[in-house]
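WARN retry 2 of 3 for item q-0093 after timeout on previous attempt; input resubmitted unchanged.
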Amino acid sequence: MRKWWVALAGWGLSCGGGAGQDAGVSVATITEPDASGGTTTPGASSDPSGDTAVDDTNGGPNVPPAIEVPSSVALAEEVPWSLVVGVVDPDDADVRVFALGLPPGARWDEPTRTLSLRPDFIQGGDDALWEVTFVADDGDARVEASMSLAIDDTVAPPWPMVVGSEPGDGFTRLYLSQVTDDFLDSPGYAGRRYDAVVTRPDAVPPGERRPVLVRLHGFDGSPPTSGWEGEYRIMPHDPDDTYWWGYGEGLPGPLPTEGAVPPYTQRRVLHLLEWLLRSEPGADPERVMIAGGSMGGAGAATIGLMHGRHFAAVDATIFQAIPRNHRPSRIAQLTTRWGAPELSLGDGLDDGLSAWDHMDLTRALLELPEARAQWIFLEHGKDDPTIHFGAMVLPSPLTGSTFYEALQETGAGHLAVWDEGAHGPADPVLGDGWWQTGWNPIYDDTAWARRDTALVGFSSASHDGDPGSGEGNGLQPWSDESGYAGVLAVPGDTGWNGEIAGALNRFLRWDANGLVDELDRFEVPIVGLDGEGGPPPRAGYPSVGDQYDGVWPIDVDVSLRRVQAFGCRPGEVVDWSFGEQSGEATADGAGELTIPGVEVGPQWETLVVSRRW
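OK item q-0093 returned
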C-alpha cells in the first residue's frame, strides 16, 4: 500500500471558547514506503498544493480526504469544550482519523470524530499552547491538518506567598502562606491562610529539569520539611483533616446537612503545583509524583487518579480507597466535613455525584480514562488495626468491585503489595521494602514513567499472590474498627484469609527506552525480573528483593496506557507478537487495548502491536 502525506489548508471556523480564526496551512511532506518497509521522501513526487491524486488499492485514481478544522482555538479553564472534526472523502472510503499532540486530559473519540476537553483550573496560562495534528487515512493516502489550541488562565485564585526560607543540604526550604478565596475555600472561610513547605534544589543547570514530589501528610499531621537536591518537593497542610478532599460549603456554620461539599483541599494542593511549575523553570511537569500514607495515601491516590493528567505516578500506602467503607469512627469524623454518608451531599461539580461516591476509587478507575492511564504503587498490612485490610479486599457499595479488582479489571498500571504489617510498622518477618530492591519509576533508567510517554499496565498475572476474599480465616474475630487484624508482633496470626504476604505484578518491568508509539505500530520491551534478593524467610512467605521464586513464564495481560499515537477505535482488532508468540487483540468500548495472555520470561522480548489497514 502506498501512503502519501499531502499539505492541507486550514479552515476558519468558530469553535467553543474562541472566535473564528484566519485559515492556515499545515506543514506536510509526501512519503511512501521504501523497499525495507521504512519511508523515503521522493522530491519529484512532491505536490505542495495538496491536489495530488494517487492510485487507490483498486488501481483507480484516489482523491485524498480533506480535514476541516479551525486553525486555532482558545479555551477557558473549567469550561467543557468539544470540537467535531469534519472529514470529506470524495471516494466515500472508510477514513481513519487520529489526533496527535493533545493537551493532558483531552479525549479523542474517533467514531464521532470529536475532540473534547474540560481544562482544569491549573492548565491555563501564557505557555498553555499545543499544536494538535489531525491525520486522516483512507487506506491509500494520508493527509494532516494542524490546529493551535490555547487555554486561557480564567480561574485565578490568589498565588501563595513565600514568607520565609532557610538553607538545607543542597536545597532551599521555602515557607509558604496560601491565602484562600471562595474557590479554594468555603465562602465563610475565604481569606484565611494555610501553611505549606516547598523545597527546591540549589543548583539546577540551565536547560535541565528535576522531578517534582508532592507529599501529603497523615491524619492530625503537619507538612514535612525534608528536602533533597535531586527533586523539588511540595508539602501542603490539611489541618482540618478533610482527607485531602474538602468540606461543606456552608462551614463554618452548622455541620453539613445540605448544600455541596466541593474539593477545596484538592484545589489548594493543585494550586501549589501550578505555582511551583510556573515559578521554577527547573521543575519538570512531565515527572511529577504524588505520595502519602494513611490519610495522605488516600489523598495521593484520589488526587493522583482523578487528576492523572498532572501526575506521572502515585505512591500511596495504608489508605482507604472507598470512603463508604471507612471504619465507624472515621465515618463519624468525616461526617463533620462531608455530611453523613446517607445524605449523599453533592460534590459541587457537574457530575451529579455525592462527595462520598466521587472519592470512590473503584468508580474512578471504571469511569475515568485518566485514572486508568495512571501508574500507582500501593502497600497495605493485614495486621493494620487503623485502616484495616478491607480497604483493598471489601467491595464498593457503589460498584461492587474491590480496589484490587478494579485495578486488575481496568488494566491500570500498578504494583500492589501486602504483608502482615500494621499501620506503619513493618511485617515482623519480612521487614520493610521486601518486595524489591529500590525501583522507583520516576528515577529508574529502564522502567520509567513520564506523563507524556506511554507505559504498560499488567494484570491477571499467573504469579500474583492471593490477597484473599475479604473474609476471615478463623484466627481473629471480626471488628468493625479493625477488621480481622491480629497482633503485629505475632507472625501468622492475621485473621484475614488469603496469603499472609504477596503482591500483584511484582517482578514485571518494561523498557521505556525501547518504546515505539506510532500511528501504525506500538512496541515495548518487557521482562520478568530475576535479580538480587533472597529466598522466602519462612514457609508460606514470598522471596525478598528481586529474587524470583515462581514458575516461568509469567502469563500476564498487558494493557497499553498513555498511548500518544497508537490509538484504537472501539472494537478495533490488531495483531501482536512477542518473541515466538503471536495473536490478535480487540480494543474495548473505550478504545483501550489489552493484549491477553502474554508469556513473559527472564529475557527481554519486545511486544509488537500492529494495525490492520
